[in-house]
Amino acid sequence: MMAKLKPEDLSRIAEKMRRQTLLREGAGRAKVTVHMGTCGISAGARKIMTTLLGLIDQQQVQDVILTTSGCAGLCSREPMMTVEIKDKAPVKYVDLDEKKTLTIFTDHVLGGEIVTDFALGMGSERVS
Amino acid sequence: MIVQPEGIFYQMLTVENIPNLVEEHLVKGRPVDKLMYVPSKGKPPIPKLSDIAFFSKQRLVVLKNRGLIDPEKIDEYIARDGYQALAKALTSMDSEQVIEQVKGSGLRGRGGAGFSTGLKWELTRKSSGNGKYIICNADEGDPGAFMDRSIIESDPHSVLEGMVIGAYAIGAAEGCIYIREEYPLATKRLHIAIDQAREYGLLGEDILGSGFSFDITVHRGAGAFVCGEETSLIGSLQGQTPEPRIRPPFPAQSGLWGKPTNINNVETWANIPTIINRGAEWFASIGTESSKGTKVFSVVGKVNNTGLVEVPMGMTMREIVFDIGGGIPGGKKFKAVQTGGPSGGCIPESLVDLPIDYERLMEVGSIMGSGGLIVMDEETCMVDVARYFLDFLRSESCGKCTTCREGIAAMHDIVADICNGKGEPENIGLLEELAEAIKDASLCALGGTAPNPVLSTLRYFRDEYDAHIKDKKCPAGVCRALISYRIDPEKCKGCMLCGKHCPEKAIGGEPKGPQTIDLEKCIKCGVCRESCKFEAVLIE
Amino acid sequence: MTQEISIKKNSNGKIGAVMVLGAGVAGIQASLDLADMGYKVYLVENKPSIGGAMAQLDKTFPTNDCAMCLLSPKLVDTARHPNIEIITNADLHKLDGEAGNFTAIIDKRPRYIDEEKCTGCGTCTNNCPVRNIAHFEDVDELGKVHLSQEDQQVIEQILAGHESERAAVISVLQDINARYRYLPEDILRHTAKALDIPLSRVYSIATFYNSFSLVPRGKYVVRVCMGTACHVKGGYQILQALERMLKIASGGTTEDNLFSLEEVRCLGCCGLAPVITVNEDLYGSVKQAKLPKILERYQDESVVAESTVGGTE
After folding, report:
1. Is residue C312 predicted with pLDDT exceeding 50?
2. How far C275 CA sits from the closest chain A CA (Å)?
3. Which CATH entry fits the domain spanning B484-539: 3.30.70.20, 3.40.50.10800, 3.40.50.300, 3.30.390.30?
4. Using the beta-carbon criterion (under 8 Å), do A42 and C271 form an inter-chain contact?
5. pLDDT at site B19
6. Cα(A110)–Cα(A61) distance, integer angstroms
7. What is the least distance, in Å, from the CA of C38 to any CA of chain B?
8. Which of B230, B269, B472, B538 has the maximal Cβ count within 10 Å?
């Protein structure tokens, strides 16, 4: 059982999480987010996730954070994933399958080179 | 594979690509760019998301965390300023100030009717009686709308935070989320989120040490469209058959278990944290005169980029369909956008520059609804769309009011006759008469708005009704009784794919020669047209 | 309350007032005709409301006209007619005199509500504690509830899981539906008894919601989304193609109990329209030509084990 929070605890958690997710504090070198809403899963996001888990396990990669998230909004191009390398803008990949995932993992996640053929774009959405 | 003599290398071919490749490259001598391998050196840089129209025109408030956080981890929500609004409300605002903020923001119910959220809260707050309830309506019944599912799936805590703030403002100790059973993933994530919030003391007794207590339970629906109506939703929560009841008394006075109850939908609740964080004025600066903030729309149907988009109120339909949606696939002609689900109407091409807000949609005979935008092209028959909605409403009418139960069925039969080529010119008048009766004499909004799809298609697409009735033709090529399939011998390559799929073996012809359809055997299922790679199957 | 209607003779011996007993459609029509002719009509009805049996019918014989559509305008006319006085919830106690000159004594039973203020919202009926007491004599007459030991355990467990809920009936039915894939009759009877609500109410809920079925479903339930986006992208053609392939109508189950075919209002995956689901697996952008392949996966047991995750076909 976790302790009940007080208002000031929120910023503490936020700061801790920000450090982790922004890859600043060396928690990881790259972060891969697979977009798994109902649409994404039915388009095959789970297969992508399995492939990535397999790759990370097989190649004993230690410094890649694999995480999931909800729908990214563009249903017609599912399954999608976002690859973020430390200190670089995140890149969104669309219309994925196992083969493309392998290429992206090898070239971009490990090799640092964006796979332009499968990429939709880089950067983040405008949040107001 | 490599095509000589040009030596062009094609990659990742599938069986489906081959006919296209043969046709374009080998027959017509045009290399197919999209199948070609693009060398990785000297490649063009990839665009920025902010330069892609689909993303650049959107403005994310409710969906601010989409794709960025893991919905099953509360810490990630907190990292993006989650629960800060709650802390702010509980520590530095009293309940009246919270309501003032929500009122001042101009936020209106995102479920469809567009009633001022702040006013609704105030009414419930001022109702006498203890043990007030708040309800989150996640029974997203409108076909073609899925924003509530997506919000819960990608950012469930924003809804919970909104509800806790609402409960604090209204003075409620218990909350319910009524969610469709068709959304298993959303339900699962909601349960996880609630458990995590409880563990952190963001739900339950003495939230954030403020002394305020509130908890939420989740109730699953069982598949009834009418449950989206407030009073019938309450009935369903009470274990009754969900029939709407007469109002007044409104739920704000006497709702769940007879206690004052405030109901808002998912998107409305999810707007609350940002309003509290950024202030009413900031929120009111987005949108139009009467409709503030942003609205999440599901852009679906005959459009290139289908998906969920959030745009400021007042954006035109053209921007949404053509810029964000990327236009109509296959170079087809845009015909209409259907908004508001079965209670809404169709907006024709002539009104495509209409800025979208509650009032303007109302003026043109539709409603905002929950935000489904179904794009229709020249191959969508508007009479068939009207028939579709009547069929939907006919089976979803709860049957309490005779006009709704019998009237919609009667309208359906008339429109179905028109689709089947049995329409008479006087049918139109009869439809209008029935529509008036149903509107006037039905208790709830389901019946009250049921004739809208027919009335709006009659208003803007009268020519299509006339074509069905007078010429016995379906211009869009949809109504089966009025069309026949034919294979264009010029375009047909004799691949015989259509014959392979035809369930009635109605297609014959020599290999590599033009195929023909035996109209006696043809049941017009359309599989030939669907499977033809050369667009050789025509509808007449 | 006893009301006395006394009618005095005029010069020709007959006077202008009539009493009609029974406010069914015959009584109502008679009253309307008489009232239109200028007579003062007292319409007396034993039940609390007028309308009689016709108000409870769906269609009338032999024309199959909608019963309420015919009747309701008459009900409204009767209530509004200045010459008609409706006396409901009443019995004729005594009648003296002859036609044209009679005295009737009518016993009017109390309603315990203020008729002036009532809007007819029906909340009182819904909440009436007397009406909602369950009576189970009927169940015994129709046959005892037979539950196997396993069923007994299952239902006890389900009921125990919802003990704390104030209105558990829908959640209980959902759990039964999830366990058995339909609602078996005996279990519904047991549920009614256990929750202390009339079987009729359980039945009305079980038949109202789309997700409940009173007949067994097949091993795989194929659901075709009938949302608007799916409709404009050919969802109906998909449904018909499945009907042809499985040789069952929508709502039916194949003879080998392998597949049931159902329509669903909207699965909320409109971006991938048209959409179908087979049990938990969801398939987007479905084409008619791809359906045999999808169904095949479930026809062969060994294949199913590998492909529990759906995919776009």
Report:
1. no
2. 10
3. 3.30.70.20
4. no
5. 65
6. 9
7. 30
8. B269
